[in-house]
Design brief:
alpha/beta, globular, 4-stranded parallel beta sheet, 156 residues
Length: 156
């Protein structure tokens, strides 16, 4: 198995292009894209050529209704989340369908079994040669804040 990770290199939103390039270079590989709802806006349109050209991938969009990575620091500095909040009800799975993909939704209240079943269905569609967009509704989380606290403790 292998992967491409954009990390912190100023490459927000490159997932769609990375997925197309990966599938072109390794047609037999399983290709997954993990997007946030903010970053997918930069390259969700790559679902269209993926579908049209037979270069399928599975896109998982974590939908928490915000540019959380930006908001976290912006609120600390400016005491305002202006321009960081997104519409949590955006139907990214329907956007994928409009581009020719199979769209699936994992609602916030889904059980672990329901999540697993949806992801297995996504894999089945992918194995049929279809691009799949899975919109995963997320709750609020402070996971990054906890990571930062733990990192500061290790540095002490």
């Amino acid at each position: 198995s292998s992967g491409i990770n954009a990390e912190y290199g100023g490459t927000l939103g490159v997932g769609g292009g990375f997925a197309l390039g990966s599938k072109s270079a390794r047609p037999s590989a399983d290709v997954w894209v993990l997007w946030g709802d903010g970053s997918c806006a930069y390259s969700l349109a790559e679902v269209e050529p993926s579908s049209r050209l037979g270069l399928p991938f599975i896109a998982i969009i974590g939908n928490d209704g915000s540019w959380k990575q930006i908001e976290r620091d912006q609120v600390k500095m400016l005491d305002s989340p202006v321009a960081c909040r997104l519409d949590r009800s955006t139907p990214y799975h329907r956007v994928g369908e409009a581009y020719g993909a199979v769209g699936m939704l994992i609602p916030a209240e889904a059980s672990v079994d329901e999540m697993r079943d949806t992801l297995l269905s996504a894999q089945e569609e992918y194995r049929k040669g279809r691009t799949v967009v899975v919109n995963v509704e997320l709750g609020n989380s402070a996971f990054r804040e906890q990571q930062e606290i733990e990192e500061r403790k290790r540095q002490m």
